[in-house]
């Protein structure tokens, strides 16, 4: 008896090690370089300024249980994004273990297939929000809880036929079921998968089909309390304020036009199923490869080869001795894909890479079951290993590329705000920033005001409301129209955070490319550049530099969020020079220019960034230095850029000479 007991235990340990190591190769190589992104900004500013208890009002509008997870998590990890990312890795791996345990109980004689499914699930390349670990902590924890709940259900119906002995497993399964749904309501698709699992186990009995179906329904009924109880609470008790998670709002199209709604749902289901099964292994990889250089591609391939080697080592002595598992896995997988996508589709959402990749999470469980069933249908083991290896390599390379992209976005964002801190000692309260980032995503206004407030207003400003000290507006057409129309402040209440964007009270911050310096625009003499967008050119005259408090003590960005202070290269000198120019300290501008020149960074600038130094050297009568700067111009200033030469202290005849040297001729 010992060998038969010891071998599965040994195999289970190897499988667990494989899952943790494969997930580590996929998610951890650059984990120390991940920072805040997307919704992390407003969450972490609110917790910093108002304390972690502010999570309760923030999440009360749609998913109140998330606060009960984020509150202790913030108490443990604080502001450090590293710990959230390590936690996300841990729960992603634990979810893979729970999934593998469930599959091992379903098909105990197909252990190679079960381990392959769990491995592909934990590195599934369709989910690209793993580095966004603060906001997605709830998604990933809920995923692990859901899979553990399903595994307990399978354990109840495979471990014993006694209802009395099943009861403890089912009770714990139900409690965990309510817990994961409270964290993420659209995960309710797992409850359809739960029924499919119970149905699969019931129809294995050698009885008439009616008896099998009756058995499945009776076995499922005690667990129906999970979806029924949750839906009753969600629809009839809970009062949500966010339409994106409100069932009535999402089903409004069906009430208006049932046929159109059903057509949209059917087509979305077809396309999303294709995305989850096939395109998840192709599209995300193609998207991230453009961020990688040759060395990084080779590194990603190396990580993938390590994962392949570990999988071969773990699976080499395992076989699939069950003739029925492939058919069951195929149909269970297809049903699980549909079950996972239905709540998403009924909410009028769809799978889209990369920003809506979270909608693949539930369906990915079915996708890997179906794919592994197809892979193991090849007659030769070498072909099976080859296809599995390609899938593992694609997934690992995708996640490494995604990590490179996330790390680059973090570095770009940190560089941007360190430059702002060098340039702006303090910002006047209630100013509205309009900003352009060169690499980091910019989808919501809090992507701007979140980091700004973490630097300048990381303290509560209102006893009544959650309200930042600095507001923001997106650099889009709508903002341009409101700025040109001189519209007043606009009230917004988003997740109980109150903002008042004021289009008469703006300050523009521009950085077109990562190699450029951040420019703080003075509307009186806007320094525009040929690469500036039309939107910024239109708004530039309305940018009010007076919102910058030049004599206030400088603010130091918290290193846990923005990293250590960067090396003082060209952009440091440019920011300090423009600050000195604003204070009309021309001697300091010249001193900074001479110091930058001595450090051999002076001539790394783009032309528009030399303007404060041209002005300072001109006012000092240093024509040799001005002429030397002119010799390094690759592009002459266009008309809008030349307007900045019209500084009041520069005589008109001198300005004309400067225009001949530095400006495009009409």
Structure notes:
By secondary structure, this protein is mainly alpha-helical. 61% of the residues lie in helices and 5% in strands. The chain has 29 helices and eight strands. The strands form three sheets. It has a four-stranded mixed β-sheet, covered by helices on one side. Helix 2 packs parallel to helix 20, helix 5 runs parallel beside helix 7 and helix 9 packs antiparallel against helix 17. The chain is elongated and about 100 Å long. 46% of the residues are buried. The N terminus is likely disordered.
First-last Cα distance: 94 Å
Number of helices: 29
Low-confidence stretches: 1-6
Task: Compute the CA-based radius of gyration.
Answer: 29 Å
The overall pLDDT, averaged over residues, is 90
Outline: elongated
Helical content stands at 55-70%
Number of β-strand runs: 8
